[in-house]
Amino acid sequence: MTYDSGVSGASEATSKTVALRVLVYSDDVTTRQQVILALGRRPHPELPELEYVEVATEPVVIQNMDAGHIDLVILDGEAAPAGGMGIAKQLKDEIYQCPPVIVLTGRPQDAWLATWSRAEAAVPRPIDPIQLADAVIALLRARVPATR
Fold it and tell me: In this structure, what DSSP letter does residue 18 have?
């Protein structure tokens, strides 16, 4: 038997929340899997679930970004032949209201390069799940309307 009080509850609002789409680019499937495993389906209880779009080539990144509906972009700065920093710069230059971008750098000292690419954040490799989640949460909170 199902009981419906007629009052919308928080669980109903949560179930209707649209997932946030996160594009993860790397030519290395292992790197993409590390990012997805580090973040999981829901890195913070105040955020909706994440839906991942895995991409291995630059043309497919551009195709997905042109199509829209991406809330956050995570780019591998060490990918080849097109590195994530160059792609980040291109996205920021060419896409109106480009979603936030996180660049995975080869080492912490490379974070300054992310400023050239206009990425909002840089996370060094090897990937620290807490550091990556903190960057993702900070950037996605700004894109999600307050529920309270």
Answer: P
